[in-house]
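Sharing a chain and its predicted structure for anyone who wants a worked example. Both blocks are below, sequence first, tokens second.
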Amino acid sequence: MNFSENWQNYLNEALLAEGRLEDAKDRYPELNKLGYIDKMASEDPTNNNAYLGWMAKRLNDFFSLTQGAGEEQSSMREEHVEDIIGITKQFHQNKQRLQKKDIYQYKAYEDLKDAIDALGQTRSQKRKFEKEQAMEGSEIIFEDENFFAIRPFTRQASCHYGAKSKWCISARGNGYFDQYTSEGKGFVFVRMNNMVSSSDQEREFALVFDRDGDLESTFDIEDVEGDDEAFHDAAAVNILEGIFSGTKYAGQGREMYGEIYSDMNTAMEDKPAPGIYKAIAKEIEKQYGDSGAIADPIDIDEAELYELSDWIVSSIRAPGYEIIGMGRDSIESQPPGPSVEALDEIVSNFNGEARYSHLDYEMYDNLHFQGGMSIELTDFPLSEWSEKVQDEYDDYRSETEDKLKEILSSALDSGGIYPDNMDISWERQWNRETGSYATEEGSEVLTVRMDFYQEYEESSVRGFQEYADRILEYDANVDNVKERLANAFMEALMIKSDAYTSIEQIKSNALADLENFDEADVGDGEVTFYGTLRIQTERVPAFLQEISQMAGTENKPGPLAWFREKITGPFRDRDETIMKFYFQQAHRQLDDLELNRNWRMKFGQMLNKVYDSQEEMAKRQGKLDLQEENLYQAANFEFNIVKNQRIYHPESGKMSITFYIEIPIRDNSIDTGLKFIKDVDRLWSSVEEVYEKAVTEHMYEIYAGWEDDAKAKLEVAMEERKKEAAASETPKEEPMTESKKNMQSHFDGWRRYIS
């Protein structure tokens, strides 16, 4: 194209731009009057006003919606001018990425903005963003004309600054950086600015520190591991390459370093240093002389070869030591640990999947994490549970609570959920939006909260992810477990159902026919009938009661106060009597397993004897077809006494205690069980006699042993006091008072009684 054609095209474009400008001014005189047409024309990225008509139309539409002369409207209009110009420039930049490549196809400002927003960032914008993120997630350790050292704190920074390396911690798509930092590893990346060859493995180094700031190892750009010496040598070569840049020695830094190093160790005295060595030394002094990083000053021109070689080697290795030292300082001031970014990402992903569980972490000296789960049986409010559950739902450590936890543990275990701690409560539903309860009292639901402790998972990002995955597995099993729980609670008759209602009726009918069983509970898959046994058992011996009265208490001592500790031992309650001490011991003896076993055996023997006699009588009467079966052997039941409901008076020997019989609720056995209950009710006095005999036999031996022990201790104690009294010196014999005469008479009586 010649000059004439170029000029003609320019004139045509200029005329076209001018025509578009005039047309916009004519169409929108108000905008022109305010100067907006000229402003938008000057900002049109096409330079020929190709977008001016679209911009003017969009601005005019906005003016129509914001009529009025108020300050707010004026401000909005000014801002929208800039918005329209800005979105137009974005369209021009991203035109080829858009589906609609003609700006006039977008009928509204919002349409174009949505299309631009949907594109996302361009590649260059992404690179810019990544760089900004990397800079925010890093710390520059050292920087001069020869070196650039930076410590990355985030995975993004590690990937950005190690992009040209083969370090695993800088590879995208893996979690090695987070893993190693969580294990206490810190990293410093060092770039050798003067390494001229792109193939030089030592142009970049990754320095690996432990949590205490000690250098563990180094890796070159090819991920070949070395030690600190390899790094110091590379740093020295890098400085030499910088000095040689632009000279005939360029690219010979490694060879020159080898020669200087050799001369340092082998040069003889009085051998002068070559001019190149002096030139290198002067350049080193020029670069680092004021930094304090190089060796002590030296007379470069007068120094011998071995002296100058040693000085050069020490000086060009010094920056490497300084970089390591500054890396150590950074590690000590901010020790490495798990990446908060990575941990937050795990929590965010977890929250997106979990329905019943929660997850969190804490950073102290080390990473700690915790998680748990909450399950609510919302389908079964408290009013739908059994009467026993409703009566005991808010009692601490009740039978109901223990049974609930037993069923819960079994269902959770079989459903693949293994909590380390579990608590249950009954809670009303809370409405977060209204800030009030969503349900009325009586509609509380069973809420199960569980904690899952850190087990085999290490305190690292990887361990935290494994921990999160484990809880998510539990979370996925919750629905199945909730179904198991509902069925288990119904089977145990803890949740009302048709079966529960039927059994309640059977219980009520049975109680109406019983004289000695006055209470019954339905639940846990059985019906339990309760009655009270009243017996006359062994009394505490009169001797023990008497010495208790004579001893008194610490607050109110009696004549035998000195003897009390011989029975009770020291450090007792100041208001405790010997009888109170024996009373406590008696209750422990009544809880004895041997007593329990003995009475249960005698109970069975008694019932077997009754049923055997009934069978024999039926045979004698010829009622072979009507003979009674032995229900003690045929019925399925549990029985015992309730120890914590015992009332016992050791002085009188009177005792009352709750007795129960528990029969399972099964269609094929409940009738037999009820018949057995009626037989026991009929034989109630015999049951009391059996229990009375077992308790009496047991306590008789106990009391006899206590009495013998007390008599022996009293005799020994009195002999000791007699000897002490005889040995003590008295200035004169005091007259025998009436009380002393009575006491002496009393002691003499005891001695005769014991003898």
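Comments welcome. The chain has 27 helices and 16 strands.
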